[in-house]
Amino acid sequence: MTDRTEGYVTDVGYTHDYCHELNPLRARLALLNAGMSAPEVATACELGFGQGLSLNIHAAASPADWYGTDINTSHAGFARNLASASGATVEILDEAFGDFANRPDLPDFDYIGLRGVWSWISDRNRVVIVDFIRRKLRTGGIVYLDYNALPGWAAFSPMRHLLVEHANRGGASDRGTAARVDDAMAFAARLLSTHPEYAKDNPQILDRIKTLSGEDRRYVAHEYFNRDWVPMHFSTVAEWLKPARVDYAGSANFSDHLDALNLSNAQRELLEEIHDPVLRQSTRDFIINRTFRHDYWIRGAQMLSAPARAEALRKVRVMLVTRSPELPFQLHAALALHRNSFGAATHAAVLEILVDYKVRSIGELEQAIGRKGISLGQIVDAVTFMAGLEHIAAAQDETVIARVRPHTDRLNAHLIERARTSGDIADLASPVTGGGVRVRRTHQLFLSALRQGRARPEEWADDASKFLVSKQTDPSLIDDARAFAAEKLPLLRALQVV
Length: 498
Fold this sequence. Notes:
Blueprint: H1 24-33, E1 43-47, H2 53-61, E2 65-69, H3 73-86, E3 90-93, H4 97-101, E4 109-114, H5 123-136, E5 137-148, H6 157-170, H7 177-193, H8 197-201, H9 204-213, H10 217-224, H11 234-241, E6 247-251, H12 259-262, H13 265-272, H14 277-288, E7 292-298, H15 306-314, E8 317-320, H16 329-337, H17 343-354, E9 360-361, H18 362-369, H19 376-388, E10 392-395, H20 398-418, E11 427-430, E12 435-438, H21 441-451, H22 457-465, H23 475-494
Parallel strand pairs: 1-2, 1-4, 2-3, 4-5
Antiparallel strand pairs: 5-7, 6-7, 8-9, 8-10, 11-12
Protein backbone atom coordinates (compact mmCIF):
# COMPACT_ATOMS: atom_id res chain seq x y z
CA MET A 1 0.00 0.00 0.00
CA THR A 2 1.20 3.52 -0.75
CA ASP A 3 0.80 6.52 1.52
CA ARG A 4 -1.90 7.77 -0.83
CA THR A 5 -4.20 4.82 -0.12
CA GLU A 6 -3.66 4.98 3.66
CA GLY A 7 -4.27 1.27 4.07
CA TYR A 8 -7.39 1.14 1.91
CA VAL A 9 -7.78 -1.89 -0.38
CA THR A 10 -7.21 -0.80 -3.99
CA ASP A 11 -5.94 -3.91 -5.77
CA VAL A 12 -9.45 -5.39 -5.71
CA GLY A 13 -12.26 -3.38 -7.26
CA TYR A 14 -15.48 -2.85 -5.32
CA THR A 15 -18.80 -4.36 -6.37
CA HIS A 16 -20.97 -2.60 -8.96
CA ASP A 17 -23.98 -2.15 -6.72
CA TYR A 18 -26.49 0.66 -6.27
CA CYS A 19 -27.46 2.41 -3.02
CA HIS A 20 -31.08 3.60 -2.75
CA GLU A 21 -30.38 5.57 0.41
CA LEU A 22 -28.10 7.97 -1.48
CA ASN A 23 -31.04 9.20 -3.59
CA PRO A 24 -31.79 12.80 -2.46
CA LEU A 25 -35.50 12.24 -3.19
CA ARG A 26 -35.56 9.53 -0.55
CA ALA A 27 -33.97 11.95 1.90
CA ARG A 28 -36.76 14.44 1.24
CA LEU A 29 -39.43 11.90 2.23
CA ALA A 30 -37.49 10.97 5.39
CA LEU A 31 -37.12 14.60 6.49
CA LEU A 32 -40.75 15.48 5.88
CA ASN A 33 -41.78 12.38 7.79
CA ALA A 34 -39.67 13.66 10.70
CA GLY A 35 -41.36 17.07 10.50
CA MET A 36 -38.46 18.93 8.89
CA SER A 37 -38.33 21.10 5.81
CA ALA A 38 -36.29 19.50 3.02
CA PRO A 39 -34.10 21.54 0.66
CA GLU A 40 -34.19 21.55 -3.11
CA VAL A 41 -31.00 19.77 -4.14
CA ALA A 42 -29.20 21.64 -6.93
CA THR A 43 -25.63 20.54 -6.12
CA ALA A 44 -24.65 17.18 -4.66
CA CYS A 45 -21.49 15.27 -3.83
CA GLU A 46 -20.58 11.65 -3.13
CA LEU A 47 -17.35 10.96 -1.27
CA GLY A 48 -15.88 7.51 -1.94
CA PHE A 49 -18.21 6.48 -4.76
CA GLY A 50 -16.79 3.00 -5.40
CA GLN A 51 -17.48 1.99 -9.00
CA GLY A 52 -19.66 5.09 -9.35
CA LEU A 53 -22.92 3.38 -10.30
CA SER A 54 -24.98 5.24 -7.68
CA LEU A 55 -23.22 8.50 -8.51
CA ASN A 56 -23.94 8.16 -12.22
CA ILE A 57 -27.52 6.95 -11.83
CA HIS A 58 -28.30 9.93 -9.59
CA ALA A 59 -26.45 12.34 -11.89
CA ALA A 60 -28.43 11.06 -14.87
CA ALA A 61 -31.80 10.73 -13.16
CA SER A 62 -31.92 13.87 -11.00
CA PRO A 63 -31.71 17.58 -11.85
CA ALA A 64 -28.73 18.20 -9.55
CA ASP A 65 -25.13 18.80 -10.61
CA TRP A 66 -23.07 15.99 -9.06
CA TYR A 67 -19.44 15.79 -7.94
CA GLY A 68 -17.53 12.85 -6.55
CA THR A 69 -14.13 11.43 -5.73
CA ASP A 70 -12.75 7.96 -5.08
CA ILE A 71 -9.12 7.17 -4.36
CA ASN A 72 -9.18 4.10 -6.60
CA THR A 73 -8.17 5.27 -10.09
CA SER A 74 -9.77 2.22 -11.68
CA HIS A 75 -13.09 3.09 -10.02
CA ALA A 76 -12.87 6.65 -11.29
CA GLY A 77 -12.12 5.46 -14.82
CA PHE A 78 -15.16 3.19 -14.83
CA ALA A 79 -17.34 5.97 -13.40
CA ARG A 80 -16.15 8.38 -16.10
CA ASN A 81 -17.16 5.91 -18.79
CA LEU A 82 -20.68 5.81 -17.35
CA ALA A 83 -20.77 9.60 -17.20
CA SER A 84 -19.66 9.85 -20.81
CA ALA A 85 -22.43 7.45 -21.80
CA SER A 86 -25.18 9.44 -20.05
CA GLY A 87 -23.94 12.94 -20.86
CA ALA A 88 -25.11 14.07 -17.41
CA THR A 89 -23.49 16.90 -15.46
CA VAL A 90 -21.08 15.09 -13.14
CA GLU A 91 -17.49 15.84 -12.13
CA ILE A 92 -15.56 12.66 -11.33
CA LEU A 93 -12.14 12.73 -9.67
CA ASP A 94 -9.72 10.17 -8.22
CA GLU A 95 -8.32 12.38 -5.49
CA ALA A 96 -7.77 11.62 -1.82
CA PHE A 97 -10.30 13.29 0.45
CA GLY A 98 -7.81 15.91 1.61
CA ASP A 99 -6.95 16.97 -1.94
CA PHE A 100 -10.58 16.97 -3.06
CA ALA A 101 -11.75 18.91 -0.02
CA ASN A 102 -9.29 21.73 -0.75
CA ARG A 103 -10.14 22.20 -4.40
CA PRO A 104 -10.97 25.88 -5.02
CA ASP A 105 -13.40 25.08 -7.87
CA LEU A 106 -16.00 23.18 -5.84
CA PRO A 107 -19.40 24.76 -5.22
CA ASP A 108 -21.24 24.66 -1.92
CA PHE A 109 -23.47 21.60 -1.69
CA ASP A 110 -27.09 20.95 -0.79
CA TYR A 111 -26.36 17.26 -0.33
CA ILE A 112 -23.25 15.24 0.60
CA GLY A 113 -23.35 11.44 0.66
CA LEU A 114 -20.94 8.88 2.12
CA ARG A 115 -21.67 5.21 1.82
CA GLY A 116 -19.62 2.87 4.01
CA VAL A 117 -16.63 5.20 3.90
CA TRP A 118 -16.86 6.39 7.50
CA SER A 119 -16.08 2.93 8.91
CA TRP A 120 -13.10 2.27 6.65
CA ILE A 121 -10.97 5.40 6.99
CA SER A 122 -8.49 6.83 9.47
CA ASP A 123 -9.28 9.45 12.09
CA ARG A 124 -7.21 11.88 10.03
CA ASN A 125 -9.56 11.43 7.09
CA ARG A 126 -12.59 11.74 9.35
CA VAL A 127 -11.27 15.14 10.42
CA VAL A 128 -10.92 16.09 6.74
CA ILE A 129 -14.48 14.99 5.95
CA VAL A 130 -16.01 16.76 8.94
CA ASP A 131 -14.19 19.95 7.99
CA PHE A 132 -15.34 19.55 4.38
CA ILE A 133 -18.95 19.29 5.55
CA ARG A 134 -18.45 22.32 7.81
CA ARG A 135 -17.14 24.45 4.95
CA LYS A 136 -19.09 23.17 1.96
CA LEU A 137 -22.56 22.16 3.14
CA ARG A 138 -25.14 24.90 2.69
CA THR A 139 -27.51 25.86 5.49
CA GLY A 140 -30.45 23.49 5.23
CA GLY A 141 -28.25 20.94 3.44
CA ILE A 142 -28.35 17.18 4.03
CA VAL A 143 -25.63 14.64 4.77
CA TYR A 144 -26.19 10.93 4.20
CA LEU A 145 -23.86 8.79 6.31
CA ASP A 146 -23.91 5.05 6.85
CA TYR A 147 -21.48 3.07 8.96
CA ASN A 148 -20.85 -0.10 10.93
CA ALA A 149 -22.55 0.42 14.26
CA LEU A 150 -22.22 -0.71 17.85
CA PRO A 151 -23.25 -2.66 19.80
CA GLY A 152 -24.06 -5.04 16.92
CA TRP A 153 -20.46 -5.46 15.72
CA ALA A 154 -18.89 -5.71 19.18
CA ALA A 155 -18.73 -9.51 19.28
CA PHE A 156 -17.34 -9.81 15.75
CA SER A 157 -14.62 -7.19 16.12
CA PRO A 158 -12.00 -9.61 17.57
CA MET A 159 -12.65 -12.07 14.74
CA ARG A 160 -12.24 -9.34 12.15
CA HIS A 161 -8.95 -8.39 13.79
CA LEU A 162 -7.75 -11.99 13.52
CA LEU A 163 -8.79 -12.22 9.86
CA VAL A 164 -6.75 -9.13 9.00
CA GLU A 165 -3.80 -10.37 11.07
CA HIS A 166 -3.79 -13.60 9.10
CA ALA A 167 -4.08 -11.77 5.78
CA ASN A 168 -1.18 -9.49 6.66
CA ARG A 169 1.07 -11.97 8.47
CA GLY A 170 0.05 -15.49 7.56
CA GLY A 171 -0.25 -15.01 3.81
CA ALA A 172 2.57 -14.40 1.36
CA SER A 173 3.14 -10.67 1.01
CA ASP A 174 3.36 -10.91 -2.77
CA ARG A 175 -0.12 -12.43 -3.11
CA GLY A 176 -3.07 -10.20 -3.93
CA THR A 177 -5.77 -9.20 -1.46
CA ALA A 178 -8.37 -11.61 -2.87
CA ALA A 179 -6.12 -14.64 -2.36
CA ARG A 180 -5.18 -13.56 1.16
CA VAL A 181 -8.84 -13.03 2.00
CA ASP A 182 -9.61 -16.58 0.87
CA ASP A 183 -6.78 -17.90 3.05
CA ALA A 184 -7.96 -15.88 6.05
CA MET A 185 -11.56 -17.10 5.70
CA ALA A 186 -10.37 -20.70 5.46
CA PHE A 187 -8.23 -20.19 8.55
CA ALA A 188 -11.20 -18.77 10.48
CA ALA A 189 -13.32 -21.78 9.55
CA ARG A 190 -10.58 -24.12 10.78
CA LEU A 191 -10.26 -22.16 14.02
CA LEU A 192 -13.99 -22.32 14.69
CA SER A 193 -14.01 -26.06 13.99
CA THR A 194 -11.80 -26.47 17.07
CA HIS A 195 -14.65 -25.07 19.23
CA PRO A 196 -12.74 -22.18 20.86
CA GLU A 197 -14.15 -20.59 24.00
CA TYR A 198 -14.62 -17.34 22.04
CA ALA A 199 -17.15 -19.06 19.78
CA LYS A 200 -18.89 -20.67 22.74
CA ASP A 201 -19.36 -17.25 24.32
CA ASN A 202 -20.34 -15.69 20.99
CA PRO A 203 -22.30 -18.40 19.12
CA GLN A 204 -23.49 -15.96 16.42
CA ILE A 205 -19.91 -15.84 15.07
CA LEU A 206 -20.35 -19.24 13.42
CA ASP A 207 -23.27 -18.01 11.31
CA ARG A 208 -21.53 -14.75 10.49
CA ILE A 209 -18.39 -16.48 9.19
CA LYS A 210 -20.54 -18.92 7.22
CA THR A 211 -22.39 -15.99 5.66
CA LEU A 212 -19.17 -14.15 4.86
CA SER A 213 -17.75 -17.24 3.20
CA GLY A 214 -20.53 -17.05 0.64
CA GLU A 215 -20.20 -13.31 -0.04
CA ASP A 216 -18.57 -11.72 -3.07
CA ARG A 217 -14.86 -11.54 -2.27
CA ARG A 218 -14.73 -7.95 -3.56
CA TYR A 219 -17.29 -6.96 -0.94
CA VAL A 220 -15.53 -8.89 1.83
CA ALA A 221 -12.16 -7.34 0.99
CA HIS A 222 -13.45 -3.77 1.09
CA GLU A 223 -15.78 -4.29 4.03
CA TYR A 224 -13.39 -6.05 6.41
CA PHE A 225 -9.78 -6.00 5.20
CA ASN A 226 -8.88 -2.32 5.04
CA ARG A 227 -6.31 -1.18 7.56
CA ASP A 228 -8.98 0.88 9.33
CA TRP A 229 -12.27 -0.70 10.40
CA VAL A 230 -14.01 1.14 13.20
CA PRO A 231 -17.61 0.39 14.19
CA MET A 232 -19.00 3.27 16.25
CA HIS A 233 -21.76 4.07 18.70
CA PHE A 234 -24.25 6.64 17.47
CA SER A 235 -23.17 9.05 20.20
CA THR A 236 -19.54 8.79 19.03
CA VAL A 237 -20.53 9.71 15.47
CA ALA A 238 -22.65 12.59 16.76
CA GLU A 239 -19.66 13.89 18.70
CA TRP A 240 -17.46 13.60 15.60
CA LEU A 241 -19.95 15.61 13.54
CA LYS A 242 -20.37 18.46 16.02
CA PRO A 243 -17.78 20.71 14.33
CA ALA A 244 -19.70 20.31 11.06
CA ARG A 245 -22.77 21.86 12.74
CA VAL A 246 -25.20 19.18 11.60
CA ASP A 247 -27.94 17.51 13.60
CA TYR A 248 -29.52 14.08 13.29
CA ALA A 249 -32.54 14.27 10.98
CA GLY A 250 -33.72 10.68 10.75
CA SER A 251 -33.01 7.23 9.43
CA ALA A 252 -32.76 6.41 5.73
CA ASN A 253 -33.99 2.95 6.73
CA PHE A 254 -37.70 3.73 6.71
CA SER A 255 -38.63 0.83 8.95
CA ASP A 256 -36.90 2.74 11.75
CA HIS A 257 -39.67 5.36 11.49
CA LEU A 258 -42.29 2.81 12.56
CA ASP A 259 -41.54 1.72 16.11
CA ALA A 260 -45.02 0.24 16.47
CA LEU A 261 -44.05 -2.52 14.05
CA ASN A 262 -40.53 -3.12 15.31
CA LEU A 263 -40.51 -2.72 19.09
CA SER A 264 -42.45 -4.16 21.98
CA ASN A 265 -44.72 -2.00 24.13
CA ALA A 266 -42.14 -2.02 26.93
CA GLN A 267 -39.37 -0.98 24.56
CA ARG A 268 -41.44 1.88 23.13
CA GLU A 269 -42.40 3.07 26.60
CA LEU A 270 -38.73 3.15 27.59
CA LEU A 271 -37.78 5.18 24.51
CA GLU A 272 -40.65 7.61 25.03
CA GLU A 273 -39.19 8.50 28.42
CA ILE A 274 -35.87 9.54 26.82
CA HIS A 275 -35.97 13.14 25.58
CA ASP A 276 -32.31 13.52 24.63
CA PRO A 277 -32.17 12.56 20.91
CA VAL A 278 -28.65 11.12 21.06
CA LEU A 279 -29.36 8.97 24.12
CA ARG A 280 -32.62 7.86 22.53
CA GLN A 281 -30.87 6.63 19.38
CA SER A 282 -28.10 4.97 21.39
CA THR A 283 -30.68 3.15 23.52
CA ARG A 284 -32.65 2.07 20.45
CA ASP A 285 -29.47 0.61 18.96
CA PHE A 286 -29.07 -1.56 22.05
CA ILE A 287 -32.69 -2.68 21.85
CA ILE A 288 -32.28 -3.97 18.29
CA ASN A 289 -28.54 -4.77 18.56
CA ARG A 290 -27.80 -2.49 15.62
CA THR A 291 -25.03 -3.53 13.25
CA PHE A 292 -25.40 -0.82 10.61
CA ARG A 293 -26.83 2.69 10.57
CA HIS A 294 -28.16 4.61 7.55
CA ASP A 295 -28.67 8.20 8.69
CA TYR A 296 -29.54 11.63 7.36
CA TRP A 297 -28.08 14.68 9.07
CA ILE A 298 -29.06 18.29 8.40
CA ARG A 299 -27.60 21.72 8.96
CA GLY A 300 -30.03 24.24 10.40
CA ALA A 301 -33.13 22.06 10.52
CA GLN A 302 -36.36 23.99 9.99
CA MET A 303 -39.14 22.28 11.90
CA LEU A 304 -42.56 22.43 10.27
CA SER A 305 -45.80 23.11 12.09
CA ALA A 306 -48.28 20.22 12.02
CA PRO A 307 -50.40 21.88 9.27
CA ALA A 308 -47.32 22.75 7.19
CA ARG A 309 -45.96 19.22 7.52
CA ALA A 310 -49.29 17.74 6.47
CA GLU A 311 -49.48 20.02 3.44
CA ALA A 312 -45.90 19.20 2.40
CA LEU A 313 -46.55 15.49 2.73
CA ARG A 314 -49.69 15.75 0.62
CA LYS A 315 -47.54 17.09 -2.23
CA VAL A 316 -45.14 14.14 -2.15
CA ARG A 317 -45.56 12.05 -5.30
CA VAL A 318 -45.18 8.27 -5.07
CA MET A 319 -45.59 5.20 -7.23
CA LEU A 320 -45.50 1.45 -6.91
CA VAL A 321 -42.14 0.06 -8.04
CA THR A 322 -42.75 -3.67 -7.61
CA ARG A 323 -45.37 -5.99 -9.02
CA SER A 324 -48.32 -6.47 -6.66
CA PRO A 325 -46.13 -6.86 -3.57
CA GLU A 326 -46.94 -9.83 -1.42
CA LEU A 327 -45.94 -9.20 2.17
CA PRO A 328 -44.56 -12.07 4.26
CA PHE A 329 -47.00 -13.63 6.68
CA GLN A 330 -45.09 -12.22 9.66
CA LEU A 331 -45.61 -8.65 8.41
CA HIS A 332 -49.30 -9.24 7.79
CA ALA A 333 -49.51 -10.48 11.36
CA ALA A 334 -47.65 -7.42 12.66
CA LEU A 335 -49.96 -5.10 10.74
CA ALA A 336 -53.01 -6.87 12.12
CA LEU A 337 -51.76 -6.41 15.68
CA HIS A 338 -51.39 -2.65 15.33
CA ARG A 339 -54.90 -1.48 14.50
CA ASN A 340 -54.15 1.98 15.90
CA SER A 341 -51.47 2.44 13.25
CA PHE A 342 -52.01 2.11 9.51
CA GLY A 343 -52.76 -1.61 9.63
CA ALA A 344 -53.36 -4.12 6.86
CA ALA A 345 -56.51 -2.35 5.64
CA THR A 346 -54.66 0.90 4.95
CA HIS A 347 -51.84 -1.00 3.27
CA ALA A 348 -54.32 -2.78 0.97
CA ALA A 349 -56.21 0.44 0.19
CA VAL A 350 -53.02 2.26 -0.83
CA LEU A 351 -51.91 -0.64 -3.03
CA GLU A 352 -55.32 -0.80 -4.69
CA ILE A 353 -54.88 2.79 -5.87
CA LEU A 354 -51.23 2.45 -6.94
CA VAL A 355 -51.45 -0.95 -8.62
CA ASP A 356 -51.73 0.64 -12.10
CA TYR A 357 -48.16 2.05 -11.72
CA LYS A 358 -49.32 5.64 -12.11
CA VAL A 359 -47.72 8.39 -10.04
CA ARG A 360 -50.00 9.94 -7.43
CA SER A 361 -49.48 12.42 -4.64
CA ILE A 362 -50.14 11.41 -1.06
CA GLY A 363 -52.88 14.03 -1.15
CA GLU A 364 -54.54 12.17 -4.01
CA LEU A 365 -54.31 8.95 -2.02
CA GLU A 366 -55.96 10.73 0.89
CA GLN A 367 -58.81 11.93 -1.32
CA ALA A 368 -59.31 8.46 -2.77
CA ILE A 369 -59.36 6.43 0.45
CA GLY A 370 -60.11 9.03 3.12
CA ARG A 371 -63.80 8.17 2.89
CA LYS A 372 -62.92 4.75 4.31
CA GLY A 373 -61.96 6.44 7.57
CA ILE A 374 -58.26 6.26 6.83
CA SER A 375 -56.33 9.32 8.04
CA LEU A 376 -53.45 11.15 6.39
CA GLY A 377 -51.12 9.93 9.13
CA GLN A 378 -52.07 6.32 8.48
CA ILE A 379 -51.50 6.76 4.74
CA VAL A 380 -48.06 8.33 5.38
CA ASP A 381 -47.16 5.43 7.69
CA ALA A 382 -48.25 2.90 5.05
CA VAL A 383 -46.27 4.67 2.32
CA THR A 384 -43.23 4.87 4.60
CA PHE A 385 -43.54 1.21 5.50
CA MET A 386 -43.76 0.09 1.87
CA ALA A 387 -41.00 2.47 0.81
CA GLY A 388 -38.80 0.78 3.41
CA LEU A 389 -39.54 -2.55 1.72
CA GLU A 390 -38.71 -0.99 -1.70
CA HIS A 391 -42.31 -1.48 -2.88
CA ILE A 392 -43.00 2.26 -3.19
CA ALA A 393 -40.69 5.11 -4.18
CA ALA A 394 -41.01 8.88 -4.25
CA ALA A 395 -41.43 10.35 -7.74
CA GLN A 396 -40.16 13.54 -9.32
CA ASP A 397 -42.23 16.27 -10.98
CA GLU A 398 -43.18 15.79 -14.61
CA THR A 399 -40.98 18.68 -15.73
CA VAL A 400 -37.97 17.14 -14.04
CA ILE A 401 -38.75 13.73 -15.50
CA ALA A 402 -38.83 15.18 -19.01
CA ARG A 403 -35.61 17.09 -18.40
CA VAL A 404 -33.54 14.11 -17.24
CA ARG A 405 -35.07 11.41 -19.46
CA PRO A 406 -32.49 11.87 -22.29
CA HIS A 407 -29.66 11.18 -19.82
CA THR A 408 -31.27 8.08 -18.31
CA ASP A 409 -32.08 6.77 -21.79
CA ARG A 410 -28.42 7.06 -22.80
CA LEU A 411 -27.12 5.54 -19.57
CA ASN A 412 -29.60 2.64 -19.74
CA ALA A 413 -28.73 1.95 -23.37
CA HIS A 414 -25.07 1.72 -22.36
CA LEU A 415 -25.79 -0.58 -19.38
CA ILE A 416 -28.11 -2.83 -21.39
CA GLU A 417 -25.50 -3.20 -24.10
CA ARG A 418 -22.90 -3.99 -21.43
CA ALA A 419 -25.10 -6.82 -20.12
CA ARG A 420 -24.27 -8.76 -23.29
CA THR A 421 -20.71 -9.24 -22.02
CA SER A 422 -20.93 -8.77 -18.24
CA GLY A 423 -23.39 -9.52 -15.48
CA ASP A 424 -21.98 -7.34 -12.72
CA ILE A 425 -24.52 -4.47 -12.93
CA ALA A 426 -28.11 -5.21 -11.96
CA ASP A 427 -29.64 -1.72 -11.84
CA LEU A 428 -30.90 0.76 -14.43
CA ALA A 429 -31.88 4.43 -14.03
CA SER A 430 -35.42 5.77 -13.71
CA PRO A 431 -36.14 9.43 -14.47
CA VAL A 432 -39.39 9.02 -12.52
CA THR A 433 -37.85 8.08 -9.16
CA GLY A 434 -34.54 9.88 -9.71
CA GLY A 435 -32.74 6.67 -8.80
CA GLY A 436 -31.99 3.06 -9.62
CA VAL A 437 -34.29 0.16 -10.46
CA ARG A 438 -33.30 -3.46 -9.97
CA VAL A 439 -33.14 -5.25 -13.34
CA ARG A 440 -31.19 -8.49 -13.37
CA ARG A 441 -28.91 -9.41 -16.24
CA THR A 442 -31.29 -11.84 -17.97
CA HIS A 443 -33.97 -9.14 -18.09
CA GLN A 444 -31.46 -6.61 -19.40
CA LEU A 445 -30.72 -9.06 -22.21
CA PHE A 446 -34.44 -9.25 -22.97
CA LEU A 447 -34.46 -5.45 -23.16
CA SER A 448 -31.48 -5.57 -25.49
CA ALA A 449 -33.40 -7.85 -27.85
CA LEU A 450 -36.44 -5.60 -27.62
CA ARG A 451 -34.33 -2.58 -28.52
CA GLN A 452 -33.18 -4.42 -31.62
CA GLY A 453 -36.74 -4.86 -32.85
CA ARG A 454 -37.46 -8.37 -31.61
CA ALA A 455 -41.08 -8.26 -30.49
CA ARG A 456 -41.81 -11.75 -29.13
CA PRO A 457 -40.65 -13.19 -25.78
CA GLU A 458 -39.47 -16.32 -27.55
CA GLU A 459 -37.14 -14.16 -29.63
CA TRP A 460 -35.87 -12.40 -26.52
CA ALA A 461 -35.04 -15.75 -24.90
CA ASP A 462 -33.28 -16.97 -28.03
CA ASP A 463 -31.20 -13.79 -28.22
CA ALA A 464 -30.39 -13.83 -24.48
CA SER A 465 -29.25 -17.45 -24.62
CA LYS A 466 -26.35 -16.43 -26.88
CA PHE A 467 -24.81 -14.46 -24.03
CA LEU A 468 -25.47 -16.86 -21.16
CA VAL A 469 -23.45 -19.85 -20.06
CA SER A 470 -25.80 -22.46 -21.54
CA LYS A 471 -25.53 -20.99 -25.07
CA GLN A 472 -28.91 -22.51 -25.93
CA THR A 473 -32.51 -21.54 -25.40
CA ASP A 474 -33.65 -23.27 -22.23
CA PRO A 475 -37.44 -23.71 -21.92
CA SER A 476 -37.26 -21.99 -18.53
CA LEU A 477 -35.67 -18.98 -20.23
CA ILE A 478 -38.68 -18.74 -22.53
CA ASP A 479 -40.98 -18.91 -19.50
CA ASP A 480 -38.92 -16.17 -17.88
CA ALA A 481 -39.23 -14.00 -20.99
CA ARG A 482 -43.00 -14.46 -21.10
CA ALA A 483 -43.31 -13.58 -17.42
CA PHE A 484 -41.06 -10.56 -17.99
CA ALA A 485 -43.33 -9.36 -20.82
CA ALA A 486 -46.43 -9.72 -18.69
CA GLU A 487 -45.16 -8.49 -15.34
CA LYS A 488 -41.85 -6.61 -15.32
CA LEU A 489 -41.92 -4.81 -18.66
CA PRO A 490 -45.10 -2.78 -17.90
CA LEU A 491 -43.45 -1.56 -14.68
CA LEU A 492 -40.22 -0.62 -16.43
CA ARG A 493 -42.24 1.34 -18.97
CA ALA A 494 -44.08 3.15 -16.19
CA LEU A 495 -40.76 3.97 -14.61
CA GLN A 496 -39.60 5.20 -18.05
CA VAL A 497 -36.60 2.90 -17.91
CA VAL A 498 -37.62 1.79 -21.43
